[in-house]
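Can you give me the bound-state structure? Components:
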Amino acid sequence: MLNERRNVLKKLFASLAGIAGLNVVAKAASNTTFDKQAKNVVYDQEIPLFSSSTKHGGFVFLAGIGAHFEGDIKAHTDHVLKEMENQLKKAGSSMDKVLKVSVFLHDLNDYKAMNEVFRGRFGSNPPVRTTVAVYGGVPGNSLVEMDCIAAV
Amino acid sequence: MLNERRNVLKKLFASLAGIAGLNVVAKAASNTTFDKQAKNVVYDQEIPLFSSSTKHGGFVFLAGIGAHFEGDIKAHTDHVLKEMENQLKKAGSSMDKVLKVSVFLHDLNDYKAMNEVFRGRFGSNPPVRTTVAVYGGVPGNSLVEMDCIAAV
Amino acid sequence: MLNERRNVLKKLFASLAGIAGLNVVAKAASNTTFDKQAKNVVYDQEIPLFSSSTKHGGFVFLAGIGAHFEGDIKAHTDHVLKEMENQLKKAGSSMDKVLKVSVFLHDLNDYKAMNEVFRGRFGSNPPVRTTVAVYGGVPGNSLVEMDCIAAV
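Here's the bound-state model for the whole set.
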């Protein structure tokens, strides 16, 4: 059943991202509203949908990051963590400053393999983490989605 | 199966909210404990259950908001966002100050339609967002539940 | 189906925690990186996996807490809340300073019974709360997992 769901999702996301006109693109945008700063706004049909990062009061918040290519949980986890590092650097933060990570797995059976890639990536004082599995609930056919809150 | 689940949930929530004695009501309450401020405490049988918003150190946190009426994902998303705006205003914040939104969909197939209502609602520097679907896991038969963290 | 899932998860977690060599252990560690402080780092094969709490800028973040023993939702909720209180105290915070709680239920049918144990545990100005159910997605066979953000 889960495999069927994945196939459905793959088609869904393909249609979301392309044919069906969702037209989500990331543009470079870094404006300041009072203290809040938002970076790399993602647009849906030219309308701002969400930002890749926001900053306020010494904290940076990252949007949920998935891996939208064919690959196993280790490849997906590695991709997500590398993208997290990229986004943190753009926002003036870094992996060792991450305070909290939320992990949404496609399948709880991937828990151990996800850990094998996750461990050690945040230095000797890693963030807190909350992990749950949502069985088909991760958008875009990704096996894992992660967001984080970091110090900056 | 999901439709069956929704019916079960509808009954469950009806019983939760009414007959079965949960008796959850929102009362106006805005007290200060040190820096922390809590607004609109929700009670369960006269005992404080959770607040609608809390504030501390330049940040406001909103409780998960659902839509507990018959309607499609667009109607539910619109309701949730309007209620979010109301709660933010009560707390002295606003939609353009939202830093992070968490979106829990009932069904990932609602992703695109949710986006159509979501986009543009937070101004030109929108919050980061994390979206997953929980397939029957949103309380009270809502098609979507959202919470947020905002600057204040 | 959910019961079957639970059994699978029980076996999975047993294997994760033991035989299969995950070897996750909590060690006392409280170091400071700039402002960020991390407490009780959990290691996976001697490599830092995540911390039990992190602190920065007047906020403390707690890792997701589950109940990994045989018991019903009330016993699991009570255990999780007691452990939350322990971790908050270690970090210099307390239950009445909690700003936001995320609740991940194994089964939405446990919502009411979870509330019965949850209510009143955070004083008269409780945190905001977001609750969803993930139907088999909570690691380690726990019926509920909670994390929090608190003032400190």
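A couple of observations. Residues 1-33 of chain C form one domain. Chain C is about 30% helix and 35% strand.
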